[in-house]
Amino acid sequence: MPEAVSTETPIAVQSMSAAEHYAAAEAEFAKAQQLSKADPDEYRRVMDCASMHLRFAEVLTCGASLVIDYALAKESPAYRDVKVSSAGWESSAWNELLGRTRGTR
After folding, report:
1. Are 98 and 61 spatial neighbours (Cβ–Cβ below 8 Å)?
2. How far is Cα 15 from Cα 98, in angstroms, rounded to an integer?
3. Tens digit of pLDDT for each residue in 77-104?
4. Which of 12, 29, 48, 73 could cross-link 79 (Cys pair, CB 3.0–4.6 Å)?
5. Hey, how many other C-beta atoms are within 10 angstroms of the C-beta on 79?
């Protein structure tokens, strides 16, 4: 008998903010703490998942910061050195990614 098809959006395609990734990491760490002695393999898997969420939160925070810095550089001559560097290209990529994941593009 075929399995039922899930109608839930897979976690891999859900967009999450840095704060949501951080909260997910906290939940995974709590789950891992409960599993630490009961199931070492599942403990490692859950810890890997928590670490992944923390890395995503860090990357989103850094990317958003870069986008803001570049926006300031475009407006103010005091930030001219940032504008001339590769930050422009990098922040354009972040703007595109953040816009795509938030549905604003």
Report:
1. no
2. 9
3. 776 665 556 666 666 777 777 676 555 4
4. 73
5. 16
